[in-house]
Amino acid sequence: MKAFIDHDHMDMLQDQNLCTRLLNWYNASHRDLPWRKTGNPYAIWVSEVMLQQTQVKTVIPYYERFLQRFPSVNELAAADLEDVLMVWSGLGYYSRARRLWEGANYILQHLNGQMPGDYDGLLRIPGIGDYTAGAIASIAFGQRIPAIDGNVKRVLSRLLAWNEPVETVRSLRRFKERLLAWQSVENPGDFNQALMELGAMVCTAAKSACGCCPLADVCRGFLGGEALLYPLKKPKTRRKDITRLTFVLRKGNKIYVQKRPAKGLLAGLWEFPGSEIEDSDGQSPNDGLPDISRDEYMVHFQKALADRGFDLLAEEQFRRGVILHGPIWYTFSHRRWKIIWVIIDLPEPRSPFPLRETEGDYSSNSKDEYSEISRWVSLENSGQTPLPVAFSGIYESLQSELTSSLQELE
DNA sequence: AAGTCGGGGTT
DNA sequence: AACCCAGACTT
């Protein structure tokens, strides 16, 4: 009896009619998204990279801005990475921006500026993995190949009542086999998008609108009355709490920021200098401010800044005693920062000569910014420096402090 | 196979 | 809070 059901179910999934039904549903009710109005493989590439781990609603304004600023592979390749990061800032996962830029340069140098037209070629480009290669190949070039994202994993796991974690290679392999047998020959790109659209609009994570689903009558999860049991997932590792002692060097209304390394956390963005303090394994939430001695401040300060030019002034302030601000909690995917900060006020320069490290100097397209590792950004205008959202709490606190001090002057 | 990489939207 | 999101890459 069970074997009969399995066989019957397989037949249903391989039924051309089912694929047609999915496409009909998609054609009738899909959202009108910007990247669905173009056949330009570059634009689709940009959209797919932005959509990695990022919701459609969040991506749309970034997508429009990015294409306006970098309309083609050539123009992206010719741009400074700094400018690409500027447009990307706020979107997160900043290595995506760097790899997109690297990918454009790769295409320009090795492929004569022409995007690869198939899965295998696309897969070699930085930032294009299994999913994105399949998505671009099918959507922009009509190649018949699956594109399995989180939506598709959820839809398939419910459709098949898949009783294994969906992240494993085994699950992925089985899903690919299934989709390859099922995928539309005439329009494989729409087929892939239809599955994702179904996952985004109907077969959603927390609830699911099975009453509106065009596949409900063959969905094992729904027929068994337990669609929400799926997808099965492996348990996740817990987030680590890390205290980040942050130093705000202030000169009038300007704040000192330095560039983070090209790889790793917040790669290539500009930060307030800081030093991480591992919260001792104790599982105490430790919501208060840590007790830091003057000597410890100096050790952290020297670890945080490469520039030794501020050591004397900083030490003097630490000796006099400092006010520890915060904490502000900020959560990443894999860690949680307890941000605390001290403000170190520096004397304003007496000379009328402009500072070398200012935004104004930088923006005058001088191309020798490779060595630039620090800047002074003004609190009123930080629009030329990609800053992480993690520090926006500190930033706003400084801005409001500035505003109120200006009001006192009146 | 597990860990590293953001930020925002949802329950 | 926890979970999710049109994942890729490193270890």
UniProtKB/TrEMBL annotation:
Enzyme class: hydrolase
One Pfam family in the UniProt entry: NUDIX_4
Keywords, comma-separated and alphabetical: 4Fe-4S, DNA damage, DNA repair, Glycosidase, Hydrolase, Iron, Iron-sulfur, Metal-binding
UniProt-listed GO biological process terms: base-excision repair; mismatch repair
PROSITE patterns xrefs: ENDONUCLEASE_III_2
EC number: 3.2.2.31
InterPro entries, per the entry: A/G_AdeGlyc_MutY, DNA_glycosylase, Endonuclease-III-like_CS2, HhH-GPD_domain, HhH_base_excis_C, HhH_motif, MIG/MutY, MutY_C
Cofactor note: Binds 1 [4Fe-4S] cluster.
Catalysed reactions listed for this entry: Hydrolyzes free adenine bases from 7,8-dihydro-8-oxoguanine:adenine mismatched double-stranded DNA, leaving an apurinic site
UniProt cofactor(s): [4Fe-4S] cluster
Domain HhH-GPD: residue ranges: 50-201
GO molecular function, one term: purine-specific mismatch base pair DNA N-glycosylase activity
Record-stated family: Belongs to the Nth/MutY family.
Function: Adenine glycosylase active on G-A mispairs. MutY also corrects error-prone DNA synthesis past GO lesions which are due to the oxidatively damaged form of guanine: 7,8-dihydro-8-oxoguanine (8-oxo-dGTP).
PANTHER family (UniProt xref): ADENINE DNA GLYCOSYLASE
Name of the protein: Adenine DNA glycosylase
